[in-house]
Design a protein that fits this description.
Layout: H1 5-8, E1 19-25, E2 31-37, H2 39-48, E3 52-55, E4 60-63, E5 72-79, E6 85-92
Parallel strand pairs: 1-6
Antiparallel strand pairs: 1-2, 3-4, 5-6
C-alpha cells in the first residue's frame, strides 16, 4: 500500500523525504517525543494505529515499542498548517524516551514559568 495521494500531496518533506512527527499523550497533552517519518511510516501509522517512524541512524522503519514493549497507540494524526509536521495523539505504554523516561522533555528545562 502507499500513502493516500490527497495526503501525500500536502506534505512538505526535507531533502531525504522526511518530515517531523510529534507524539503527544492523549490524556495529559504532554509532548512525549519528536521523531521522523516518511510517506511509508505515515501510511503504516494511519493503517495500523501503531506509531511507525523512520530511524535516521539505522536507516530503517521502526514501530514504537516493537522491541521494548513501550508502545504508542495512535488515536489521531493531524497535519500542521505548513504540511511539514504531523502531530500524533497517542496512548503511551511505558517510557516514550530511549533513556527510559516517560517523555524526552524531562531533563533540561532551559526557561521555566514566571
Amino acid at each position: 500500500m502507499s500513502l493516500d495521494a490527497s495526503i501525500a500531496s500536502r506534505l512538505k518533506r526535507d531533502a531525504n523525504g522526511l518530515f517531523t512527527a510529534v507524539a503527544q499523550e492523549r490524556g495529559t497533552g504532554q509532548v512525549l517525543m519528536v521523531a521522523w517519518m516518511d510517506d511509508i511510516a505515515l501510511d503504516r501509522t494511519l493503517r495500523t494505529r501503531r506509531a511507525t517512524y523512520w530511524s535516521r541512524s539505522r536507516g530503517e522503519h521502526w514501530v514504537k515499542g516493537e522491541t521494548s514493549g513501550h508502545t504508542q497507540y495512535v488515536h489521531s494524526v493531524r497535519l500542521d498548517c505548513d504540511g511539514d509536521t504531523v502531530l500524533l495523539e497517542v496512548d503511551q505504554t511505558g517510557a516514550a524516551c530511549h533513556t527510559g523516561a516517560h517523555t524526552c522533555f524531562d531533563a533540561d528545562l532551559l526557561l521555566g514559568p514566571e
